[in-house]
Queue: 2 jobs
Job 1
Amino acid sequence: MPSAVRRPANLSLDSGLLSEARELNINISRAAEEGVARAVRAEKERLWRIENAEAIKAANEYVEKHGLPLARFRQF
């Protein structure tokens, strides 16, 4: 996200954790942004799995019943 527009946000953080991060010269804004980005990715993945559960199940059942479609061409 190098060209992302940043906006200020108010956060409440554990005071001990905040002090420790400052002592270690951790950029709090960047660390918070990275943590939020990870949480967003995880939630999108969770929702994608829920939304696609039926298709995933059907694909797995097909492979269980018929094997991998191009398995005969595998060289390993």
Job 2
Amino acid sequence: MSKQQRESLDAMLRSAPQGFRPQPMEEMRSSFAAMMATMAVPTDVKKTPTTLGDRDAVLVEPEQNARPGTILYFHGGSFLLGSPETAMGLTANLVTRTGYRAISLDYRLAPEHPFPAAIEDALSAYRALLESGIEASSIVFAGDSAGGGLSVTTCLAARSAGLPMPAAVLTFSAGLDHTRSGASVETKADVDPFFTKEGLMYNGSLYMAGQDPHQELLSPVTLADLTGFPPVLMQVGGNEMMLDDSTRFAERARDAGVDVILDFTAGVPHVFQSFVGVLDESDQALDRAALFLKQRLG
């Protein structure tokens, strides 16, 4: 059944127009929101608008009493698209599977607010949690795609600011290399149903706004010092042009003495965890992610 599910999902994703063409930003954002609105979202959670730092956010809690611990969640969307609502399926699934509350941050988006605005917002949110009296040891960072990269770069920014590291980092298909130097950008081009190299470069240019990608907050996979990083779980699929963002980061984390798990699932697309109820691997991966968080938050 799983092989059939993977093939059916791939065929469905490829039924959309392929190739790359620049689109107006509002059209890109509305299309992304419409696609993500089709993803299943658990109903047994409470969602409450809130603020964190100086940004809007959404507090997502179990219907019953939450366990002690906070997931600070960063949505995906190439730093151009998305919101806490577009990632609600992932966020709510982590909440229901762990019993922890999550706060999903509505960080600023490019091109209106290019690099490093998103990192500044994420760091401000983390600082606000700490200043509210929450211990770093009871906070985990999690995110998908660009938000997975933001989970990593927020750790780097926190360390530079003299703040303690969170208890752990969880990434789904993290984007960690704006130089696009991973071999998978070429070797996975024919099997990735979402991205093209041209599209990746175009989206990255809007986020970087002319800045050099050869710096640790834009390409941490090759340039960041990972010494002292918290434990990391990286989940990634086999049909991703950004596959090597995760595989190379995991190798460098290992070499830096960081507890790291590279969780690879063959034959599935970018952020495959979103396809709960469609793909068995999605539910299984989220179960493994929840176990990791519960082990780290105790």
